[in-house]
Specification:
Elements lengths: L7 E2 L3 E5 L7 H7 L17 H12 L5 E7 L7 E9 L4 E8 L9 H16 L4 E7 L3 H10 L2 E13 L2 E11 H8 L4
Parallel strand pairs: 5-6
Antiparallel strand pairs: 1-2, 2-3, 3-4, 4-5, 6-8, 7-8
């Protein structure tokens, strides 16, 4: 079973490899909170310790996949999670995921810093050249964050997601290339 061991540290947050012990009542509460999971696929099935444990085990059973919890520096309570998965070494690409569960950190720099740490790891440590993310059109928060970070909107999938009974929304596909990221974050800094 594959399991990442690397802690990623930034100025305000650190990413610690997700382990089963992180499946706390707090974390389960986020996964079942309609406001937190509004655009996540998990919203369709109530999440329990068993369903999440099985997910984490299957996640790490993949050839290469990374999942971290996000801690504010100096604090011992997680505020979210982030992932790097779907790694395709033939194309040097992967998908990135992010959930900020602690609403006190919504609108803070938490999402940007977590994206930066995972992106740096993906491009500089793993040698990938492309990252992707999918989002729902009405999820203005993540769409704003991805654009601000440097992702390019590459496509719109019409009525790709159910957001309520008989109600659909468009999905967005975002991409970031290593050269774009290095030009924005590595040159002259």
């Amino acid at each position: 079973m594959f399991h990442p061991l690397q802690v990623l540290s930034g100025p305000n947050f650190k990413l610690v490899p997700f382990i089963e012990e992180h499946i706390s009542d707090l974390y389960l509460g986020w996964l079942n909170d309609a406001e937190v999971n509004r655009y996540l696929e998990i919203r369709f099935v109530p999440q329990t310790r068993d369903t999440v444990t099985e997910y984490v085990r299957s996640f790490y059973a993949r050839k290469e996949a990374y999942m971290w919890v996000i801690y504010p520096n100096g604090k011992d309570q997680i505020v979210g999670t982030t992932t790097l998965q779907g790694i395709n070494r033939n194309h040097d690409s992967a998908g990135i995921g992010l959930m900020i569960g602690d609403k006190e950190y919504w609108g803070s720099n938490c999402a940007l810093e977590a994206l930066g740490l995972v992106t740096d790891f993906a491009f500089e440590t793993l040698g990938l050249r492309r990252l992707t993310e999918e989002s729902s059109g009405p999820n203005h928060s993540i769409n704003f964050t991805l654009r601000r970070f440097g992702f390019t909107l590459e496509g719109k999938m019409r009525q790709a997601s159910v957001i309520g009974p008989g109600e659909y929304c468009d999905g967005y596909r975002w991409g970031l290339l290593v050269d774009e990221w290095r030009a924005k974050y590595k040159s002259g800094s």
